[in-house]
Amino acid sequence: MISVSMTVAHAVTAAASNATAGLTTEPVWPAMIKMVAGLLIILGLLYMGSALLRRWQFGGSNSRQGIISIKESRPLGAKRMLCLVEVRGREVLLGVTPDRIEPLCHLEVTEENHETSSFDAELKHRHSQ
């Protein structure tokens, strides 16, 4: 019985020494640099892919020439803002909150009003009424 356990112990020791004999002590830094570079390349590709998807999803640079255009927007506080939106020749002042978007007033766009009137002037005019 003792000789069997001694034989098993010798076999395990020999296997362990053979397994470690093939290992060399190379520096870890080149492998870490390759790993970090690969990670940065993958993250860059993911970022570029998401930017392209956003561009295609929202119409790219041609979205400003469509039927709907956002003329101006002003923040009012945390997650609240006013947006002046033009849709088919009409301007709509929208109140935007995280929960909903509500039209505050509808404005007709005229050539003289459209070119000379600013968002601030229109708000002051509407507020004074």
From TrEMBL:
<dbReference type="InterPro" id="IPR052205">
    <property type="entry name" value="FliO/MopB"/>
</dbReference>
<keyword id="KW-0812">Transmembrane</keyword>
<feature type="transmembrane region" description="Helical">
    <location>
        <begin position="31"/>
        <end position="53"/>
    </location>
</feature>
<dbReference type="GO" id="GO:0009425">
    <property type="term" value="C:bacterial-type flagellum basal body"/>
</dbReference>
<dbReference type="GO" id="GO:0005886">
    <property type="term" value="C:plasma membrane"/>
</dbReference>
<dbReference type="InterPro" id="IPR022781">
    <property type="entry name" value="Flagellar_biosynth_FliO"/>
</dbReference>
<keyword id="KW-0966">Cell projection</keyword>
<dbReference type="Pfam" id="PF04347">
    <property type="entry name" value="FliO"/>
</dbReference>
<keyword id="KW-0282">Flagellum</keyword>
<keyword id="KW-0969">Cilium</keyword>
<dbReference type="GO" id="GO:0044781">
    <property type="term" value="P:bacterial-type flagellum organization"/>
</dbReference>
<keyword id="KW-0472">Membrane</keyword>
<keyword id="KW-1133">Transmembrane helix</keyword>
<protein>
    <submittedName>
        <fullName>Flagellar biosynthesis protein FliO</fullName>
    </submittedName>
</protein>
<keyword id="KW-0975">Bacterial flagellum</keyword>
<comment type="similarity">
    <text>Belongs to the FliO/MopB family.</text>
</comment>
<keyword id="KW-1003">Cell membrane</keyword>
